[in-house]
Write a structure and sequence with these properties.
alpha/beta, Rossmann fold, five-stranded parallel sheet, globular, binds adenosine-5'-diphosphate
């Protein structure tokens, strides 16, 4: 970056935007294997938050690869760049005052830490959607594991590309044992306890 590019401080700040929305901005980052349930759980949580009047946005890995990240593949370098871009977008959304949900395999610990570090302290909630590989393989909603096993896709996380599980996530969802509703309730309880949500949310019926 050129030394002649100087940050411009604007009068309308994150605090002002968030106050207009009566909420605390936050990035809820879902990480886990493909088919672990990141998009499904994030989508269900977003629906509840929206119904309760919160302003949200869901960044979904597959969807962003159709646009912003369409030039990127699945090499380690491209995965890193993918998460860097998404992290910057999440930061902007948070700055806009939104509660952002991000569903990305994001297999590398360092890349997730970089996103955590560009956000103000306490604004990054790492949610490990911990579904074992054999369950993900069995679900295979998009047929991607079958393709990877036939060698039609390479560099597939869990097959021939590594997944580095979080060591200290804010929330660990044992999603092979939980229904989607139970996973969402666990998230709502966590968000309630940490003071992000106002009191009085109604849990989903499990
Ligand atoms: P990811 O975003 O992690 O790739 P998806 O949410 O796209 O995963 O797919 C997960 C699949 O598993 C969906 O078809 C979903 O309906 C199914 N599924 C079954 N049980 C669960 C559960 N307990 N939690 C989340 N998803 C589940």
């Amino acid at each position: 970056m050129s030394e002649n590019v100087i940050w411009h401080r604007h009068a309308v700040t994150q605090k002002i935007r968030a106050r207009r929305k009566s909420q605390r901005p936050l990035v809820i980052w879902f990480t886990g294997l493909s088919a672990s349930g990141k998009s499904t759980i994030a989508g269900a949580l977003e629906q509840i938050l929206t119904q309760q009047g919160y302003h949200t946005y869901l960044l979904d890995g597959d969807n962003l690869r159709h646009g912003l990240c369409r030039d990127l593949g699945f090499s380690d370098a491209d995965r890193k760049e993918n998460i860097r871009r998404v992290g910057e977008i999440a930061r902007l959304m948070s700055d806009a005052g939104l509660i952002t949900l991000a569903a990305f395999i994001s297999p590398f610990r360092d890349d997730r830490r970089i996103v955590r570090d560009i956000l103000p302290a306490g604004e990054f909630i790492e949610v490990f959607v911990d579904t074992p590989l054999d369950v993900c393989r069995e679900r295979d909603p998009k047929g991607l594991y079958a393709k990877a096993e036939r060698g039609e896709i390479t560099k597939f996380t869990g097959i021939d590309s590594p997944y580095e599980a979080p060591q200290n996530p804010e929330l660990h969802l044992d999603s092979a044992r939980l229904s989607v509703a139970q996973a969402v309730n666990q998230l709502l309880a966590y968000l309630g306890e940490s003071g992000v949500l106002q009191a009085g949310y109604r849990p989903l019926v499990a």
